[in-house]
DNA sequence: ACATTAATGATAGTAATACTATTATTTAAA
DNA sequence: TTTAAATAATAGTATTACTATCATTAATGT
């Protein structure tokens, strides 16, 4: 069975759905590559158009601006993460194992699901670590939030919070703990890569570090 | 006694030291106001120059670009935070009270120290919450880091880590916990202001929320 | 007090960015 | 096979992110 995975991203994010045309999919694929290469600040639609051999105006038909395009990519990622989480938590009954599975997912490169997915998951992962907070850390956050485009993040957060509560019914801050571990997963990965003195990473545990730290944190708080 | 507080920010951050001239100080003061008003993305040197009634070129004599200016402001903030921390931890012996004092400082508006400080601390606080991570979440982070401009953040982190270790010698991740609570302090404040569903904030505890959550987190992990 | 240096103001200019608009051409749908 | 929709190609504008020049003002040293 050759399943094509695709996720519906909120329509408010784009002008034309990039999933529904070759050009659209090429835009997303090349954006992921180029944002990863240049960083979001230096990334422009012009450069993307040149990279793709298309016109700048074509990209503007899909996205209002590069911030929306990033929002699309990040939303897509959260939807994919949500899907993987459902998939991996399936049939698990032990809440501790569920939490460990979640933490593992949040702190590692996403497994590449055979079939579908022509996006570079390694790059996507790096983009999420470095750029994801830029989608909401903007002046217009309240305005943007009204169109519900942050829903995928909120839903993932709520889902993790449910598992937290199932593990420890008395814990008072399941959603905050959830958003904190998501963000900390990114930060600790970024710091261990670029600013290791902000962490306790060692050369030995470099890849596992964020996971170890967050597991210790979560089970420390939840008991 | 009328003490003027000032902090030496690493010289690599600026071209000309803004603390050493009226124009320089006006640049910083107005930047804080304007970044708070417009957000960092919409903030430009041109707008700042108009606001100040000076020429754009004058500002470029102090800072290479707006990223460096933000880095200056954020570095200044960390130095000020470090100073306040020393001040408030003075004479405290109970490590638990020390940690609570730290968490309180990280999650509240900084107290305005009489004398000195013509910067708007309320605004500065908001800028740190919303913009501070943008100084390191950039492609050039390794390059920038070489000039030691992130030292104030690292030193604050190390200082907090010392207290964490003093409180619990067995805890394996003092620096990561330290950077995590600093970042979480910002995120949880931002989320409770703008995206409350990512938190467990209630209308009642809105101002105290981040503090309560992080206290619970820290003493949960450290025992 | 005067000369020298340094800082600022005023103005101009350039390349790149972030778009919008127009029209011709290709592709897809009715 | 007609019609509509999507794309390519091209142009154009306002703003951004700078750099350069030169006159003026302020600060400093002797």
List key phrases describing it.
mainly alpha; 61% helix; 223 residues; Tetracycline Repressor, domain 2; 0% strand; DNA-binding; homodimer
Describe this structure in words.
The structure is a homodimer of 223-residue chains. With 223 residues, chain A is an all-alpha fold. Chain A has a single domain, classed as Tetracycline Repressor, domain 2, CATH 1.10.357. Chain A contains ten helices and no strands. Chain A has helices at residues 22-38, 45-52, 56-60, 66-89, 95-107, 121-131, 141-146, 151-167, 174-194, 209-222. In chain A, helix 5 runs antiparallel to helix 8 and helix 5 packs antiparallel against helix 10. The longest helix of chain A has 24 residues, at 66-89. The radius of gyration of chain A is 18 Å and the shape is globular. The first copy, chain A, starts with 21 loop residues before the first helix and ends with a helix. The model of chain A has no long low-confidence stretch (mean pLDDT 94). At the A-B interface, helix 7, helix 8, helix 9 and helix 10 of A face helix 7, helix 8, helix 9 and helix 10 of B. Chain B binds a DNA duplex (30 and 30 nucleotides) through residues 16, 21, 23, 44-46, 54-58, 60-61, 64-66.
Strand content of chain A: under 5%
Q: Structural class from helices and strands of chain A?
A: mainly alpha
* Assembly category: homodimer
> Which CATH architecture of chain A is right?
Orthogonal Bundle
**Percentage of residues in helical conformation of chain A:** 55-70%
CATH topological fold name of chain A: Tetracycline Repressor, domain 2
* Uncertain runs of chain A: none
Question: What's the number of structural domains of chain A?
Answer: 1
What's the β-strand tally of chain A? 0
Spell the H/E element sequence of chain A: HHHHHHHHHH
Distance between the termini of chain A: 42 Å
Indicate the CATH class of chain A.
Mainly Alpha
Q: Please work out how many helical segments of chain A DSSP would assign.
A: 10
> How many strands, what sense, and barrel or not for the largest sheet of chain A?
none
CA radius of gyration of chain A is 18 Å
Average per-residue pLDDT of chain A, rounded, comes to 94
What would you call the shape of chain A?
A: globular
Write the CATH homologous superfamily of chain A. Answer: Tetracycline Repressor, domain 2
Question: Biggest interface between protein chains, with counts per chain?
Answer: A-B, 49 and 49 residues
């Amino acid at each position: 069975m050759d399943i094509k995975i695709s996720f519906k991203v909120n329509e408010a994010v784009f002008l034309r759905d990039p999933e529904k045309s070759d050009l659209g999919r090429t835009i997303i694929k090349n954006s992921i590559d180029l944002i990863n290469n240049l960083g979001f600040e230096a990334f422009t639609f012009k450069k993307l158009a040149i990279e793709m051999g298309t016109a700048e105006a074509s990209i503007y038909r899909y996205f209002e601006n590069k911030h929306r395009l990033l929002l699309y990519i990040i939303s897509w990622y959260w939807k994919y993460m949500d899907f993987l989480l459902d998939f991996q938590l399936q049939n698990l009954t032990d809440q501790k194992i569920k939490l460990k599975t979640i933490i593992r997912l949040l702190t590692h490169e996403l497994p590449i699901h055979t079939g579908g997915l022509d996006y570079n998951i390694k790059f996507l992962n790096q983009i999420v670590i470095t750029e994801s907070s830029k989608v909401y850390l903007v002046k217009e956050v309240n305005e943007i939030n009204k169109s519900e485009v942050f829903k995928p993040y909120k839903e993932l957060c709520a889902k993790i919070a449910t598992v937290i509560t199932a593990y420890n019914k008395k814990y008072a801050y399941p959603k905050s703990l959830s958003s904190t571990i998501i963000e900390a997963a990114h930060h600790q990965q970024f710091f261990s890569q670029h600013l290791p003195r902000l962490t306790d990473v060692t050369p030995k545990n470099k890849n596992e570090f964020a996971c170890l730290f967050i597991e210790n944190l979560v089970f420390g708080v939840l008991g």
